[in-house]
């Protein structure tokens, strides 16, 4: 029982996230969930207390992660560092990772886009907790509102059909109404270095996830620090390529398999086979209007002198109101900066094949759905002074899932210290905006002004130059100003 308690202490954070992904921990959950039920039936306690009572807060938060990581319209379940984007494999207790409309379960920035894997062990460990929420997630992903497999996996590798017969909460179960939930729109786990935030709870939500944290020796890891995923208005737009456990530079576990920056074709040191890399969140702030997070992936590039950099900093600003837009800013500098050498820097994005890419001008691109039933269109605009070149490649994951074959966009420029400043916004909302950027080299910052008839946003992004003198020295400032209109007499 001491090993079981160690799992609760060391493998589940206070915020309810597991150190490993849903799929890997699902293997533990299938067994642990049954063991906890046996202990309660046989009155087996540890120091006079049932373990599921002692760690009930962690388990309750664990349930919620599933809803956060299930992508809008379902089908996908995010699964931390081992995503299958298939709820069956990991369905064992996360609400924040299940997105409205079910079918998808996000998997901590490393997905297979198949909820079966992530739902493995879900009902055994949390089927008796928060029945309305547990049932909602199950129905959303693989039940009547989702894939309608009810846990059946044709390969039998991650079947949870038997779990459903035994542990799905029996009726009557109160209906969980997403639009009336009192859950926060964000969930941040500082221990893992992971943020999941949305503009509201809806099937049309825009959702951002961001990852940059410490590597725990021995677990499966990805070279993905500062990588992000973006679900825009319910549409998977910037996705994760999938998971792998090998050290190949072109595998889904490598930097090439994530939304990162490469230098001369190389990213962070390879992961897999008990190799891993570390990063850290250096700033996180939010308000009623925005969420802002900054990750430092310097250590990931520098490990064992793999791809030396002076720093590798990414800012991400998610503005939620009155409509969503996302800004990323990369301040990355190769260690040969002092030599004045130019390097090839590439800004990588993985996108589904159902989006076409049209070049509007040198640094402005249209991402438009090619599906007849969906005419959504998004604009990706870079504010770099350098002209960016775009190369589109197919990226193929070895696993069979919805987005195994997708497109990899490689935006490149040759520079000494480029500052990739990118904005993602729907084309419709961009029509009424005026945007300008100003690079202030003397004051080491870039200012981005976004103006509408009703409001204006001012983003000030400071360049990173090593350790800062004070924790009060912010690397960013965000200001929203409402326009005051004169009343007609």
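^ Assign residues to that structure.
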């Amino acid at each position: 029982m001491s090993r079981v308690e160690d799992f609760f202490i060391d493998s589940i954070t206070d915020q309810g996230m597991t150190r490993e992904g849903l799929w890997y921990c699902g293997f533990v959950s299938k067994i642990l969930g049954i063991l906890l039920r046996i202990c309660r039936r046989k009155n087996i306690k540890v120091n006079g207390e049932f373990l599921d009572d002692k760690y009930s807060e962690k388990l309750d938060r664990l349930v919620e992660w599933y809803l956060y990581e299930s992508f809008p319209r379902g089908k996908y379940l995010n699964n931390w560092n081992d995503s299958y984007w298939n709820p069956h494999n990991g369905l064992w207790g996360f609400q924040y990772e299940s997105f409205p409309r079910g079918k998808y379960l996000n998997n901590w920035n490393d997905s297979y886009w198949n909820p079966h894997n992530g739902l493995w062990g879900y009902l055994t460990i949390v089927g008796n907790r928060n029945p309305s929420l547990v049932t909602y997630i199950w129905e959303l992903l693989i039940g009547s509102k989702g894939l309608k497999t009810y846990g059946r996996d044709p390969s039998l590798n991650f079947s949870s059909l038997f779990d459903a017969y035994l542990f799905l909460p029996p009726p009557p179960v109160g209906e969980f109404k997403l639009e009336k939930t009192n859950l926060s729109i964000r969930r941040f786990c500082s221990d893992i270095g992971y943020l999941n935030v949305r503009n509201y709870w809806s099937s049309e939500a825009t959702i951002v996830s961001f990852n940059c944290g410490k590597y725990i020796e021995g677990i499966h890891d990805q070279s993905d620090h500062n990588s992000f995923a973006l679900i825009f208005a319910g549409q998977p737009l910037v996705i994760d390529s999938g998971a792998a456990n090998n050290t190949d530079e072109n595998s889904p576990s490598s930097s090439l398999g994530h939304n990162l920056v490469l230098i001369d074709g190389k990213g962070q040191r390879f992961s897999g086979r008990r190799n891993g890399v570390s990063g850290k969140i250096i700033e996180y702030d939010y308000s009623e209007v925005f969420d802002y997070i900054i990750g430092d992936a310097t250590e990931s590039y520098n490990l064992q002198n793999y791809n030396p950099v002076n720093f590798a900093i990414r800012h991400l600003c998610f503005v939620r109101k009155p409509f969503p837009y996302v800004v990323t800013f990369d301040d990355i500098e190769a260690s040969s900066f002092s030599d004045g050498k130019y390097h090839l820097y590439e800004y990588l994005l993985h996108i589904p094949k159902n989006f076409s890419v049209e070049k509007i001008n040198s640094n402005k691109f249209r991402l438009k759905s090619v599906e007849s039933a969906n005419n959504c269109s998004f604009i990706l605009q870079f504010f770099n002074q350098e002209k960016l070149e775009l190369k589109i490649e197919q990226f193929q994951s070895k696993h069979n899932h919805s987005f195994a074959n997708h497109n990899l966009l490689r935006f490149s420029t040759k520079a000494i210290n480029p500052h990739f400043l990118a904005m993602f916004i729907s084309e419709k909302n961009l029509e009424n905006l005026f945007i300008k950027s100003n690079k202030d080299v003397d004051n080491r910052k870039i200012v981005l002004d976004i103006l509408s008839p009703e409001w204006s946003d001012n983003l000030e992004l400071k360049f990173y130059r090593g350790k800062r003198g004070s924790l009060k020295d912010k690397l960013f400032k965000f200001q929203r100003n409402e326009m005051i209109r004169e009343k007609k007499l």
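The chain is about 15% helix and 30% strand.
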